[in-house]
């Protein structure tokens, strides 16, 4: 793979990125206002609430795409992502993942709060009386293998990229995405055939809040890896300079580990 | 994987793009070849969205639901 790193030190005598004025922070903030006001209007049955909510969703997503497009240009074509800038970006990603760990911790807390000493109102047992839980050794075990395999393939793709093996990098990342999509499809299938809903007491709430939050993270992670794939195909990621891809890998392994905890606690221990 | 061969052999345009993006002092969001279209479409949607937000906020304050 061709080394396309710019020599920014010829033009500036410090390693930091003084960002250009950008409209995206304020525009995306107002798009989020549109999204939240639209959501409130829709959920309370106000006129055109659904349209305003849809517009808010499109506007937020579109704004994020244009914002990230600028970041990619700064990284790959303007040479602003020096070693020091990469260090700052990676620290940001690590802090973000730590905040995610605490988000999942709160959901697990809710699950264990209700399941370790089940209230008398749900029969004093977990799973509650009347709930038929899912078999952990059917789709959930298959999904465990799928996610663990995807973790192995993304590592293969990462090492292929570092070794300058373009074909291996593209293959590894594409197989990862295929496995991730199969995982999401199987989760959707399992939700559609499950014998309980989110409204079926604390069991349904804890089950869908935890596995649903994880499923949402899998979808985001798949998009994250998809963006890295496009950037590999476009030669934007080099053997030594692929911060976005490394962030996606870190995020994917985090999602992987959360699934292992979910499988052991919610699917296996919580169902037996 | 044979089906992916065209992807492996795509031409590398990074150097041309580096020259193109560095050869202008426009705001970064307007430097690409189709940037005006993308940003223009976003601006149009944004104005519509803000009008919708103002309408929804007014409806929420007045408490006027679907008739």
Automatic annotation (TrEMBL), chain A:
Pfam family, one: COX3
Record-stated family: Belongs to the cytochrome c oxidase subunit 3 family.
GO molecular function, one term: cytochrome-c oxidase activity
Gene Ontology BP term (one): mitochondrial electron transport, cytochrome c to oxygen
Compartments it resides in: Mitochondrion inner membrane
Main location: mitochondrion
Superkingdom in the source lineage: Eukaryota
GO CC annotation, single: respiratory chain complex IV
Chain ranges passing through the membrane: 21-42, 48-68, 89-112, 137-156, 168-186, 206-230, 250-270
Protein name: Cytochrome c oxidase subunit 3
PROSITE patterns assigned: COX3
Protein topology in the membrane: Multi-pass membrane protein
Region forming the signal peptide: none
UniProt domain Heme-copper oxidase subunit III family profile: residue ranges: 12-271
Function description: Component of the cytochrome c oxidase, the last enzyme in the mitochondrial electron transport chain which drives oxidative phosphorylation. The respiratory chain contains 3 multisubunit complexes succinate dehydrogenase (complex II, CII), ubiquinol-cytochrome c oxidoreductase (cytochrome b-c1 complex, complex III, CIII) and cytochrome c oxidase (complex IV, CIV), that cooperate to transfer electrons derived from NADH and succinate to molecular oxygen, creating an electrochemical gradient over the inner membrane that drives transmembrane transport and the ATP synthase.
UniProtKB/TrEMBL annotation, chain B:
Gene Ontology cellular-component terms listed: mitochondrial inner membrane
Keyword flag Membrane: yes
UniProt keyword list: Membrane, Mitochondrion, Mitochondrion inner membrane, Transmembrane, Transmembrane helix
Residues that span the membrane, as ranges: 39-61
Species per Swiss-Prot/TrEMBL record: Hebeloma cylindrosporum
Location of this chain's protein in the cell: Mitochondrion inner membrane
Domain of life: Eukaryota
Protein name, entry field: Uncharacterized protein
């Amino acid at each position: 793979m061709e080394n396309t790193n710019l020599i920014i030190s010829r033009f500036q005598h410090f390693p930091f990125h003084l960002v250009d004025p950008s409209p995206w922070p304020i525009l995306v903030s107002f798009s989020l206002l549109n999204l939240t006001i639209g959501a409130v209007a829709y959920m309370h049955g106000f006129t055109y609430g659904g349209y305003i909510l849809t517009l808010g969703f499109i506007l937020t997503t579109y704004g994020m795409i244009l914002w990230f497009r600028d970041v990619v240009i700064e990284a790959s074509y303007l040479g602003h992502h020096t070693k020091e800038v990469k260090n700052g970006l990676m620290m940001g990603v690590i802090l973000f993942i730590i905040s995610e760990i605490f988000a999942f911790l709160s959901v697990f807390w809710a699950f264990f709060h209700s399941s370790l000493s089940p209230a008398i109102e749900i029969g004093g047992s977990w799973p509650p009386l009347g709930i038929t839980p899912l078999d952990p050794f059917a789709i959930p075990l298959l999904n465990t293998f799928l996610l663990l395999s995807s973790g192995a393939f993304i590592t293969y793709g990462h090492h292929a990229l570092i070794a300058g093996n373009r074909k291996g990098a593209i293959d590894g990342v594409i197989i990862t995405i295929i496995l991730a999509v199969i995982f999401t499809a199987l989760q959707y299938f399992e939700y559609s055939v499950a014998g309980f809903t989110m409204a079926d007491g604390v069991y349904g709430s804890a089950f869908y809040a935890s596995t649903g939050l994880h499923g949402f993270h899998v979808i985001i992670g798949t998009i994250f890896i998809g963006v890295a794939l496009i950037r590999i195909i476009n030669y934007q990621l080099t053997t030594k300079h692929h911060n976005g891809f490394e962030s996606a890998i870190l995020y994917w392994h985090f999602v992987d580990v959360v699934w292992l905890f979910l499988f052991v606690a919610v699917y296996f221990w919580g169902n037996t | 994987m044979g089906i992916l061969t065209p992807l492996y052999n795509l031409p590398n345009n990074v150097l041309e793009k580096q020259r193109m993006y560095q050869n202008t002092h426009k705001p970064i969001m307007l430097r690409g070849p189709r940037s005006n279209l993308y940003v223009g479409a976003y601006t149009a949607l944004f104005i519509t969205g803000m009008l919708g937000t103002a309408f929804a906020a007014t409806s929420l304050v007045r408490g006027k639901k679907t008739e």
